[in-house]
Specification:
This protein is an alpha+beta fold. It folds into three domains: 2-97, OB fold (Dihydrolipoamide Acetyltransferase, E2P) (Beta Barrel); 111-147; 158-190, no CATH class. Helices cover 23% and strands 31% of the residues. It is built from five helices and nine strands. The chain has helices at 55-62, 111-116, 118-121, 125-147, 187-190, and strands spanning 2-3, 16-28, 32-38, 43-49, 69-78, 86-97, 158-159, 171-173, 179-182. It has a five-stranded mixed beta barrel. It is elongated and about 75 Å long.
Length: 192
């Protein structure tokens, strides 16, 4: 059975596949359950029918929480109301890693709270969308300069030397090699 990413579902319509990702939301109406998941490439809705899935899968659905890591196996079918236009008719659900105490719920939170949990906030739809836009802009800039014959130079973050007129430096002990400084300029490397 093929393990695929959500972004590849269109090519697998009618096939049985396995998706691995994280739970965004889940809800049930008693006999039918829905789980929306993400895997970094997109979002998908999985549909479980109590009479069509093994009891173990239905029980596993009952213990899902936001950001639980799961593997969903099922048949890909076209569904225009679903995110991405496809959904998964789930035949098996496996919990890979529970997430019992995920602090960021779908409700609104203040800026202070979100910055205290920044590593988790970055998983939200808005933050992922911002990251993708930034990626596209940065990639376009890099492509342009590459086509114009420029060379990208990634300079180190910590350096043993300082540039001209560096001013106040942030110094840190660098193992037993002495002091290292937070680089304020890539001048030494760009001029090489």
């Amino acid at each position: 059975m093929a393990a695929v990413q959500i972004s590849e579902l269109r090519a697998h319509a009618g096939d049985t596949v396995t998706l691995r990702g994280w739970v965004v939301t889940s809800r049930s109406s008693g006999k039918i359950a829905f789980v929306v998941g993400r895997d970094g490439s997109g979002y998908v809705q999985g549909v479980l029918s109590k009479k069509e899935v093994p009891e173990a899968a239905w029980d596993a659905f009952g213990s899902l929480t936001q950001e639980t890591s799961v593997a969903l196996t099922g048949t890909v079918r076209e569904e225009p109301r679903s995110p991405g236009g496809f959904e998964l008719a789930v035949s098996a659900l496996e919990i890979l890693g529970p997430s019992p105490d995920y602090p960021i719920s779908p409700k609104e939170h203040g800026t202070t709270f979100l910055f205290e949990h920044r590593h988790l906030w970055l998983r939200s739809r808005r933050q992922v969308a911002i990251a993708r836009v930034r990626h596209e802009v940065e990639q376009a800039i890099r492509d342009y300069f590459h086509q114009e014959g420029f060379t990208l130079v990634d300079t180190p973050i910590l350096t043993g030397a300082i540039g001209e007129e560096a001013g106040n430096l942030f110094a840190t002990d660098y193992f037993d090699l002495g002091k290292a400084y937070l680089a304020q300029t890539g001048q030494l490397y760009v001029e090489a």
